[in-house]
């Protein structure tokens, strides 16, 4: 008899798993959690993209200034269209040395006689990058040759509160913007909110 009941248990093993009701409740809970977390996740992704772009611009400008000081030549930063600087700052940004120290020669890249130091890829399609000047030229002293103080403003589409920027002083120093008044928005050194 004991042998018979043991054989019966082996023929009908207990099946473990989820019922359809348990499965639907589990899916509903996961869906609810995703719906709650999604806006924060999107904002985190945009914030990471903005931080990365601002850091890249900051490093690009530091590389240009250091190259000017080390090479003893003017160094230009601009969006190149062919071999001439344009004013579309949303495109690829190029850093190159200049053989001649005249402003006219600093607005064009001569691949035969000048060195292309660094290139930054264009920004995300829907975002905006603006710069307050037409061109950036560092002299061998590290100071700006072109214009005066300059401001980059990077604004992600649909998230204006996450806008950030980079500023260049006439002395050639480069500063990233920060939230100086704890309102959740980056401010320029003058205290105004970064915007495009």
Write the SSE topology.
Blueprint: H1 2-11, H2 20-71, E1 75-78, E2 80-81, E3 84-85, E4 93-97, E5 116-120, E6 128-131, E7 136-138, E8 150-155, E9 164-168, E10 174-176
Antiparallel strand pairs: 1-4, 1-7, 2-3, 4-5, 6-8, 8-9, 9-10
Pfam families: GspH (PF12019)
Main location: membrane
Organism: Colwellia chukchiensis
In short:
The chain has 196 residues and is of the alpha+beta class. It has two helices and ten strands, in the order H-H-E-E-E-E-E-E-E-E-E-E. It has helices at 2-11, 20-71, and strands at residues 75-78, 80-81, 84-85, 93-97, 116-120, 128-131, 136-138, 150-155, 164-168, 174-176.
Your description of this structure?
The protein has 196 residues and is α+β, with helices and mostly antiparallel strands. The protein has a domain at 46-100 and 107-176: minor pseudopilin epsh fold (3-Layer(bab) Sandwich). 32% of the residues lie in helices and 20% in strands. The protein is built from two helices and ten strands; from the N terminus they run H-H-E-E-E-E-E-E-E-E-E-E. It has helices at 2-11, 20-71; strands spanning 75-78, 80-81, 84-85, 93-97, 116-120, 128-131, 136-138, 150-155, 164-168, 174-176. The strands form three sheets. It has a four-stranded antiparallel β-sheet with strand order 5-4-1-7, covered by helices on one side. Strand 8 (150-155) and strand 9 (164-168) form a beta hairpin. The longest helix has 52 residues, at 20-71. The mean pLDDT is 85.
